[in-house]
Automatic annotation (TrEMBL):
Biological or metabolic pathway of the protein: Cofactor biosynthesis; adenosylcobalamin biosynthesis
All residue ranges annotated as the CobQ/CobB/MinD/ParA nucleotide binding domain in the record: 6-230
Family membership noted in the UniProt record: Belongs to the CobB/CobQ family. CobQ subfamily.
Keyword terms: Cobalamin biosynthesis, Glutamine amidotransferase, Ligase
Stated name of the protein: Cobyric acid synthase
Record organism: Nonomuraea soli
Record has Iron-sulfur as a keyword: no
Location of the CobB/CobQ-like glutamine amidotransferase domain: 257-424
Record GO biological process: cobalamin biosynthetic process
Length: 495
């Protein structure tokens, strides 16, 4: 078979990423050579490919679902917000500019060409490409410059399935409104809908499903049930609201409590997924000093705005709480930079030299060139494979070596993302944390994070196979949308 499909959503965090991954896994199990694609991604969770390109972490996960090594063509454009108004533009895995919304327009034609060229290369190399949209296709204020949703569908002649999160409520209005807000040419690409995150008996939904099909003339391809524990390299910090505790039960062991500081520009918080999968480990995201009191381990995660987020720590009283704290503290990438004595930044914040928290013997200098690498190393005899994404270069002047960084007493720092996914290293680190925290905790030697990720991808494939009309999806991928009725544009509703 040959073809492509665009998975859009009624909102951000509707489930586009996981549905795309599920379809990729389902097709790969059928022997189809399938690849994921997202033309433009706005996310602070990213990954480094084998050849040193930076792409969205969700596309790396989708590549794994398809049984592939991720490449830059799967996410040719990545926008990394550094503030409410400015984002770094990463094109084909490399940063090319830092722009605001108005300046972005100057890049639009170049980015559009790059996205379409990447999609063409993937379609030539694979049987099927499953594309993921961005946000909602009905963001009419952005439609003129859109290259990720209906702009892509029109340019590449893609059929579109719209995913809606019924757990939020209003899914039928969102389906109808999404189609109605589009012009006729865009509407022609909308083939139908998928209901996501449903709790209960599907029979209760049947009247609504029938009505939305009658009103829109488009099919509902299925209803995906709510399934706990599918934290799969999400790209949106909105998802943090639903992941305040660990995915697995403690099984009666002494609990190890981890508090992750939820920075305003938190990045690569997927680093904590491996901890959350450990039986007996509870992971919480926190924003106040009081929430640190009962933590056995505090984590300062990555940040797209190190100096600004450090100022936020001081404004919230968290900096003082961390300095006064007795117990294990881990800084990862931007968090490691904050723990240093000094940060010299004329690149990201342009703030010049600012004092760090002074908890580790290190100094940071930001450089224009971004470090993108897949380093390997070890700690206490345990091999570690990781990845690096940073402008800030840390120079260590003392302490005990810890991966590429250092340790001073109870405080650890590294620039390496993904280190905790290495099972033997993670267990050794947690043993050290438990000793320092005075906890009776033993990490489960049977926990393999790579296997758990594969199980979750298989679970997504199972959801697609069991709950979606896969025959109809195959026809849609191969033959396209076909004739569909036009809904009256929003301006003429009720006229």
């Amino acid at each position: 078979m040959k073809g492509a499909l665009l998975v859009a959503g009624t909102t951000s965090d509707a489930g586009k990423s996981v549905v795309t991954a599920g379809i990729c896994r389902w097709l790969a199990r059928q022997g189809v050579r399938v690849a994921p694609f997202k033309a433009q991604n706005m996310s602070l969770n990213s990954f480094v490919t084998a050849d040193g390109a930076e792409i969205g972490r969700a596309q790396a996960m989708q590549a794994q679902a398809a049984g592939l090594e991720p490449v830059a063509d799967m996410n040719p454009i990545l926008l990394k917000p550094g503030s409410d108004r400015r984002s770094q533009v990463v094109l084909m895995g490399r940063p090319v500019a830092d722009v605001d919304a108005l300046e972005y327009g100057a890049f639009r034609d170049r980015l559009r060409r790059a996205a379409l060229e990447s999609l063409d290369r993937l379609r030539a190399a694979y049987d099927v490409v499953i594309c993921e949209g961005a946000g909602s296709p009905a963001e009419i204020n952005l439609r003129a410059g859109d290259i990720a949703n209906m702009g892509l569908a029109r340019a590449a002649d893609l059929p579109v399935v719209v995913v809606g999160d019924i757990d939020r409520g209003g899914v039928f209005a969102a389906f109808y409104g999404t189609v109605a807000l589009l012009d006729e040419a865009d509407q022609a690409h909308i083939a139908g809908f998928v209901v996501n995150k449903f709790r209960g008996a599907v029979e209760l939904l049947r009247p609504g499903l029938d009505t939305i099909e009658q009103l829109t003339g488009r099919a509902v391809y299925g209803v995906l049930p709510w399934l706990d524990g599918l934290w799969l390299d999400v790209e949106d910090s909105l998802a943090l609201d639903s992941r305040q505790v660990q995915a697995r039960e403690p099984y009666g062991r002494q609990t190890l409590r981890v508090a992750v500081v939820r920075l305003p520009r938190i990045s690569n918080f997927t680093d904590l997924d491996a901890l959350a999968c450990e039986p007996g480990v509870v992971v919480r995201f926190v924003t106040s000093p009081a929430e640190l009191d009962d933590a056995d381990l505090v984590v300062l995660p990555g940040s797209r705005a190190t100096v600004d987020d450090l100022a936020w720590l001081r404004e919230r009283g968290l900096a003082d709480a961390l300095a006064a704290r007795k117990g294990p503290l881990l800084g990862i990438c931007g968090g490691f930079q904050m723990l240093s004595h000094e940060i010299a930044d004329e690149v990201e914040s342009k703030a010049g030299v600012v004092p760090g928290l002074g908890l580790l013997p290190a100094a940071v200098a930001f450089r224009p060139d971004k470090t993108l690498a897949r380093p390997e190393g070890s700690w206490r005899g345990h091999e570690v494979k990781a990845y690096e994404i940073h402008h800030g270069v840390v120079t260590v002047s003392g302490g005990e070596p810890f991966l590429d960084g250092c340790r001073e007493g109870d405080v650890f720092g590294t620039t390496w993302h993904g280190a905790l996914e290495n099972d033997a290293f993670r267990r050794a680190f947690l043993r050290e944390v438990a000793v320092l925290a005075g906890r009776d905790f033993t990490a489960d030697p049977g926990t393999c994070f790579a296997d758990l990720r594969e199980e979750r991808l298989d679970a997504l494939g199972d959801l697609v196979e069991r709950h979606l009309d896969t025959g109809a999806l195959l026809r849609l991928i191969e033959k396209g949308t076909g004739p569909v009725p036009t809904l009256p544009p929003a301006g003429r509703l009720g006229a």
